[in-house]
Structure formats: structure tokens, C-alpha cells
Design a protein that fits this description.
- It is a single chain.
- The protein folds into three domains: about 70 residues; about 40 residues; about 60 residues, no CATH class.
- Helix content is about 80%, strand content about 0%.
- The longest helix is centred in the first third of the chain and has 41 residues.
- The protein is extended and about 60 Å long.
Length: about 170
């Protein structure tokens, strides 16, 4: 069996196990212990390892791609096509996400005590974000903020694209 098939089967089995565990044992102490001390740390370590691999991989592939083009006219056409592809795919992804969230409304299905707990836990962060986004306006400064002062620091942040946009902070 190929590796990607094994990964896919493991993903499906993990999702089924998680849903069934939450369905049949919603308040079990062993589940919260396993989540807090096993799955959460291992998941964060796995994501950190992926991010550590992705940043050099993106940099190397972009550098090699530009170096292999050779002709600057081709670079301009490919750059334009790349930007258009990025904008179209991003717009499509955001549209799909907004439509699905407004149709499914996942927060409506949460128990009332969970809603209250989430509101009390994240009330301060929500107020901070609301205040910072209220002050930010899209304009020339947003476009200036796209170009980083320190490219190494910009690459070191987990979010390669939006980390330089103060509009999204």
C-alpha cells in the first residue's frame, strides 16, 4: 500500500475515532487528559515541524524558479499570471468559506455553557482585535506595509503573505 493511502486511511480513522469518542464519552476525564497531554502537544510539534520545512522549501522553489526563467519578459508574464491565479483562488476560497459559514452556522449548535465559556475566555482578545481593525484603513500605507523592512523576519513569521499586511492584524 502506498504511503499517501496509509496517511489517508489514518486521517479517516482518526476523524471517526474523534467523533465517536466525543459522541459516546463527551465528558470523560481520560479524553481530556489525552487531549491535553498527548494529542495537543504532538499536534503542535507536528505543525511546527511542517512550518520549519515549508519556509525553506518555498524560498528554494521560488529562487530556483526565478533563476531558471532567464528571460525577464517571461518573468513578467509568469509573475502576472501567478498574481492573478493567487487573487482568483484566494477570492474563491474566501467566498466558499463565507457562504458555508453563513449556511451551516456552526456556532448555533454549541451548547449554551460552551458559548458562555468561550465568550468569557476570549472577550479581551476579541475587543483588542475589534479595536485594532477599526483603526486600520485600506490604502497606500497598506500597500507600503507589504514590502518588509527585514525580509528574514518576514519569512520567519508563520504567515508568509498576510504577516506584512497591517490590514489583517
Amino acid at each position: 500500500m502506498s504511503r499517501h493511502s496509509k496517511i489517508f486511511i489514518g486521517l479517516i480513522l482518526g476523524a471517526i475515532t474523534g467523533v465517536l469518542s466525543n459522541l459516546f464519552f463527551p465528558n470523560a476525564p481520560f479524553l481530556s487528559f489525552a487531549q491535553q497531554y498527548l494529542t495537543d502537544p504532538l499536534g503542535k510539534i507536528f505543525l511546527n515541524l511542517l512550518i520549519m520545512m515549508v519556509v525553506p522549501l518555498v524560498f528554494a522553489s521560488l529562487s530556483l524558479g526565478v533563476a531558471q526563467i532567464g528571460d525577464l519578459k517571461k518573468l513578467g508574464r509568469i509573475g502576472f499570471k501567478t498574481i492573478m491565479y493567487f487573487l482568483i483562488v484566494t477570492t474563491l476560497a474566501v467566498t466558499i468559506g463565507l457562504v458555508l459559514v453563513n449556511l451551516i452556522r456552526p456556532g448555533d449548535y454549541l451548547p449554551e455553557e460552551t458559548k458562555i465559556k468561550l465568550l468569557t475566555t476570549y472577550k479581551g482578545q476579541a475587543a483588542e482585535l475589534k479595536e485594532s481593525t477599526g483603526k486600520t484603513e485600506f490604502g497606500v500605507q497598506t500597500l507600503v506595509n507589504i514590502v518588509p523592512r527585514n525580509p528574514i523576519a518576514a519569512v520567519a513569521k508563520p504567515n508568509l503573505i498576510c504577516s506584512r499586511l497591517s490590514f489583517f492584524h
